[in-house]
Amino acid sequence: MNQEQLLYQELKAQLKTSTGTQRTAWARYIVEHNINLKALTPLLQEEEKTAMRMAWLLSDVGLCDKEKLFDVLPCLFSIRTTCVAPGFEQQFAKYWRIAGIPEEDKGLAIDYMFQWLVAPEESTHIKTVSLEVLYQVTKEYPELKNELQLCLEQQPEDIDVSLKKAIKKVQALSQKNRAEP
Questions:
Q1: Cβ neighbours of residue 11 under 8 Å, at least 6 residues apart?
Q2: pTM
Q3: What stretches in the chain show pLDDT beneath 50?
């Protein structure tokens, strides 16, 4: 068995009950040994806890080497609906914040994040991460600034404090950028 196959078997057996420390160690191993992440993606179709922790492991890999995560994002995005981890699609907001959005997925990614930002049932964390990524996207696509501002104005008064802070930060940065020549 090669390194990828051995790691796959280890992850399949241990991810379900893994800790953050273990996942960080695996992420470093994946980066240091240049393990092909595509070879590990079938773990996203395993049972729910294994798939969920695999989704977290992907974030850990991105924190070690954002290019390694970026390179596999189109593949991950193409299988997003078959992953058994709850909320896997929303996990992409985190991946995009860590590594950036691949060009081929950018249009759909932007649509998703706008939907998550205004969805009343969406978690504050996903809304906040989506807001951060969308703000970065407006630097490349300034025509989205008005749409982002409208979404922010539509937020209910009783939103979480952390989301309020993120909104104020983005609005302040937007105003500052408009004032600069």
A1: 26, 40, 43, 50, 54, 57
A2: 0.89
A3: none
